[in-house]
Amino acid sequence: MAALTIATGTGNWFSALALGVTLLKCLLIPTYHSTDFEVHRNWLAITHSLPISQWYYEATSEWTLDYPPFFAWFEYILSHVAKYFDQEMLNVHNLNYSSSRTLLFQRFSVIFMDVLFVYAVRECCKCIDGKKVGKELTEKPKFILSVLLLWNFGLLIVDHIHFQYNGFLFGLMLLSIARLFQKRHMEGAFLFAVLLHFKHIYLYVAPAYGVYLLRSYCFTANKPDGSIRWKSFSFVRVISLGLVVFLVSALSLGPFLALNQLPQVFSRLFPFKRGLCHAYWAPNFWALYNALDKVLSVIGLKLKFLDPNNIPKASMTSGLVQQFQHTVLPSVTPLATLICTLIAILPSIFCLWFKPQGPRGFLRCLTLCALSSFMFGWHVHEKAILLAILPMRIGKNKDV
């Protein structure tokens, strides 16, 4: 509190918040880490010691490379710093390798990359109307937003205990949102295109970006009632957006297209054989569906409606990442989850098109797309809820 008081007097409260959370991250360095720690160590080894033609084929470890090419190149760059800490971590055959230097490097790499997240939060704060401020620091909208984003404990747990690079990726996302609020649409589109080639989970919110940019950037004017003025459509802007997406995609996927490896890359990015639910269920619709199927199967067995020999002993409750068949209810396919997700996001997409309401409308649509995908998507991770929570922090601020 003393540091915050000093920061208030000098106007540097944002720096104090950023510094404070960074120190907290440093304190979390020796804490528990999940298997994702080994996942990223293995990716460092793959990208450092193997040619690009083998990146998406290497399978010595069960933790194969399954992120888009930009993230693979990101790991490649990190690996050239990692070799100065511990060369052994870059050996593909050193499965489950760990050392104090490896721990320090990987933890500090996440902390360092969070600089982008801090910058993105600062840019989001600039989108808030500075005229409406409270007397106390804790009443200021910019301060509240900064605390909610920088000190988001879900993100802290996932990145700095569990171990991932979500802060860096969400930094790209928040920065793209800030650019759209600042009416720098081409920059926002470019940043989101780059983000998709770092981690494809952000496809969940791609419909919101696509519809908003088409409606509010490619159509340059509205009628007095807010409806589309069709004659205002700009082919130049559409071509410009298309060119941005094409160039980013070409830079990312081009080398693998030249190697005739795109099918292999996509098979790694979209591994549908992993099953409907993750080993640790996301609390979504399919978790309830699975639970109902389990209850019905137990009742069916007790009432002797089901043959116990036809029921698998380990199914969706086994804690394994795998495909399974439901016992009583119809089994769910990837196509079924896609249809459910599209139906769920349609209302928000229609509202964004017919009643745009500017960047705030876009942010609402983005949040609803993320929530719909979380509720009905295929193999959803529980941490995917952050995709809705973080943008929601901005949208809830009435001064945006």
From TrEMBL:
InterPro entries: Glyco_trans_ALG6/ALG8
Keywords: Endoplasmic reticulum, Glycosyltransferase, Membrane, Transferase, Transmembrane, Transmembrane helix
Recorded superkingdom: Eukaryota
A single cellular component GO annotation: endoplasmic reticulum membrane
Class of enzymatic activity (EC top level): transferase
GO function term, MF aspect, one: hexosyltransferase activity
Coiled coil regions in record: none
Transmembrane segment boundaries: 12-33, 104-122, 143-163, 189-214, 235-259, 335-354, 361-380
Subcellular location: Endoplasmic reticulum membrane
Enzyme Commission number(s): 2.4.1.-
Keyword Transmembrane: yes
Record keyword Ribosomal protein present: no
Membrane topology annotation: Multi-pass membrane protein
Pathway involvement of the protein, from the record: Protein modification; protein glycosylation
PANTHER family xref list: DOLICHYL GLYCOSYLTRANSFERASE, DOLICHYL PYROPHOSPHATE GLC1MAN9GLCNAC2 ALPHA-1,3-GLUCOSYLTRANSFERASE-RELATED
Similarity comment: Belongs to the ALG6/ALG8 glucosyltransferase family.
Protein name: Alpha-1,3-glucosyltransferase
The species this protein was found in: Homo sapiens (Human)
